[in-house]
Amino acid sequence: KCKFILCQQVALFARNIAVSPITAVNKASLRSCSIMNVFQDAVCTLNTLQTNASALEQVKRERGHPQLQLQAMRGFLQRAGLKVDELDRLNIIHVTGTKGKGSTCAFTEQILRNYGFRTGFYSSPHLVQVRERIRINGQPIGKELFTKYFWQVYCRLEETKDAHGGSMPAYFRFLTILAFHIFLQEKVDLAVFEVGIGGAYDCTNIIRRPWVCGISSLGIDHTSILGDTIEKIAWQKGGIFKPGVPAFTVKQSDGPKMVLQERAEEIGCSLSVCPDLEEYQSEDSLRLGLAGHHQRSNASLALQLSHTWLQRHFLTGASPAFQPSPAMIKGLAETEWPGRNQTLKHGPVTYFLDGAHTTRSMQACVHWFNEIAPQHERNAGGPVVRVLLFNATGERDCGAMLKLLVPCLFDFAVFCPNITEAIATCNADQQNFNVSVENMLTRCLDNQQSWRVLNGQEEKPEAELLIGGGLPLVAERHRDTLVFPCILSALQWISQGRDSVLSDPNKCVIPVKPSINAKAALLREAVNIHVLITGSLHLVGGALKHLDPALNS
Known about the structure:
The chain has helices at 2-19, 24-47, 53-62, 66-79, 101-114, 143-160, 171-185, 223-226, 230-237, 254-267, 295-314, 326-334, 359-378, 398-405, 437-454, 487-495, 514-519, 521-525, 537-547; strands at residues 92-96, 119-122, 134-136, 139-140, 190-194, 212-215, 247-249, 271-273, 342-346, 349-354, 384-390, 412-415, 464-465, 475-478, 481-483, 528-534. Strand 9 (342-346) and strand 10 (349-354) form a beta hairpin. Helix 5 (101-114) crosses helix 12 (326-334) and helix 9 (230-237) runs parallel beside helix 10. The protein is built from 19 helices and 16 strands.
């Protein structure tokens, strides 16, 4: 099958060459076209590994047998031509947590890259393109390299599946194997690995000998898999500890702190609590490239992780108290991590994007928004309209998150599923086959109703569908709450043609009923429009696909 796919691409390339005379210009164009086609084939094939709902239920049932999970991962790794002991060569930093683990990894990778090391960084989820999950020297791996390594791993697994009951690794597990393979082939000096879910049962926990482990802030999330108390979740997170490997955690509440300490003693490793960022002795103030007060604990954890890694690399003695070096200070200041406390100003429309998806992370998001939005409003010179664009997925407590957002006093609350565009396009990177469109839209309508109740508005028994046939473009229950079928249609309505990026003639403009456009008079008359996009990293990623074209390149 894999050979057939590659032959198809060769034939396609040959046909393209036959169509027109070869010049220096169209040679480059044809090569780019061929790379794009093969890359899209790789992403579409990858999407066939997405776990459907019934398989997810099976995974949840099997979580009680962690050794079976890791044993299966070892089997897939071996079928892909890798050995577990080869992973030791990657000099890994392994990080888990509920909130801030991705930011911690980003800080850590940037610091060590500033020392001149060739870095690998594996994270999830991606915002726009799946290549973002696997980075070398801070940049997503190129399409050509992604495609090359994807087919190497996929074909090895495909060719051996009949001898293993037809089994293939699920989406995240495959990407983890792919990351291991790429980092080994590209000979990185170190690899920073962010845990997917939990720790003990996560497929990244096949790592045997990391150089250092870290745990960011803990909270309630993925309860059906990790447990329904923060202590149970802490036990799962502490599962990444390894004998003799130093571990660090940010300050936690007493319950999870005690569980983490017990896990460290049980496994046989040291566990240290990171100091506040203000406690580091530095001649220069520690400025962070990521906004939000909560990033300070992530930065402190990153300093400890990078410092410990450097100690081992240079074989120096342990010194928990240290003064951040110029490379560390520069690294913290230069760190970028899109979709987390990010601000984008497009003329009169300013977007505030944060992928908060738990109550604790939403508290931090609201705190950040309430600090930064008034600063922009003071400089507006006229009326400003506030708009909330929200969606949440999985088992998240949407009501609790929406309740935290009510005091922000939004003029409009807009809800949409994590579908980038209602009209089918070549957008394989952001396809999700785990949830039906009907379920996603139903969830949006439920969130709309929750918002109305939280704002003391009268309940209306049924939503009025504003167009006939197909997906409803907008479901109306109240003048200031709207549901759209996709992210692009929501953004276009919110911006009212005032964002030049969204006014790109290449973008399809989805028609909306005149009665709904009439509701947008406030948006058209305001000096500025401030839009908070939150509730899901997938929502933020879908928005960035339209708002930041550079992320698509």
